[in-house]
Amino acid sequence: MRGFFSFTVRLFVKSISEKFTWHDFLFLLSFKLLNYDTNLTFNSEYKMKKILFTLVLTAFLFNCETPEQNKYNENEIIFVVEMYANEGKSEDDIAKFSQYYTDAINNTEPNSLGWGFYNSGDKVILIERYLDGNAMMEHGKNVSEGGPLETHFIKFMEHFTINKIDVYGAASDKLKEFVKPFGLPFYFHPDFAKFSRN
After folding, report:
1. Which of 40, 142, 180, 197 is deepest in the core (most CB within 10 A)?
2. Are residues 57 and 81 located together in one domain of the fold?
3. Is residue 67 part of a domain?
4. In a 10 Å sphere around its CB, with 0-12 CB exposed, 13-18 middle and 19+ buried, how is residue 185 labelled?
5. pTM
6. How far is residue 184's CA from residue 134's CA, in Å, rounded to a whole number?
């Protein structure tokens, strides 16, 4: 162990004096760990070992598949909110407020995957995408009394009247109970098949 520590110190000093790259440093250190006869000079044998080691490492990394759970989010919940602009609110008022509210969500809720207001003739459609039911409940707490977005939601209701909210995805009983006190018309639609990439 003392020999390896001494070797590491000497290698570090040599790496500074001879301007090794950190790749060279780690490469030589890994060879020492693998009990190779490490030579701290850039001779042809060292270069060949470095090439072979790099090729093996590259092949290993390219053959490591990302686990499926890292590619897809099976628990995404999507809220589609159908609304009308309130009387006295111009299209410009709606556009400016929509941007203001969207920015607030983006800056406050990292687990809100997507958020957008859309012009649909005489209606406004809001699409909310959440990482999962817990993320949606976190949003609900944020816009409730005492939450960081309470005043934003008050202004929201000054601009819009909600007609209905369609919820797409596997909403838990806990989520369904959570939204009841809002007194809004929620309609739940479980999925037959879907995918959602991270």
Report:
1. 142
2. no
3. no
4. exposed
5. 0.66
6. 19
d(CA 165, CA 82): 6
Place of tokens 């109970």: 177
DSSP track, the chain = -HHHHHHHHHHHHHHHHTT--HHHHHHHHHHHHTT----SS--HHHHHHHHHHHHHHHHHHHT-PPPHHHHB-TT-EEEEEEEEEPTT--HHHHHHHHHHHHHHHHHH-TTEEEEEEEEETTEEEEEEEESSHHHHHHHHHHHSTTSTTHHHHHHHHHHEEEEEEEEES---HHHHHHHGGG---EEEE--SS---B-
Structure tokens at 37: 């006869």
List the domain range (segments joined by +) for residue 22.
2-62
Does 82 lie in the same domain as 120?
yes
The owner of tokens 């977005």 is 149
Instruction: Encode pLDDT of 58-99 as tens digits.
Output: 655 556 555 555 689 999 999 999 999 999 999 999 999 999
Residue 167 identity (one-letter amino acid):
V
Find out whether 194 and 172 touch, Cβ atoms under 8 Å: no
CB count within 10 Å of CB 94 equals 18
pLDDT digit string (tens) for 24-51? Answer: 656 555 655 555 544 555 566 656 666 6
Q: Distance between CA atoms of 81 and 77, rounded to whole angstroms? A: 13
Domain count, the chain: 2
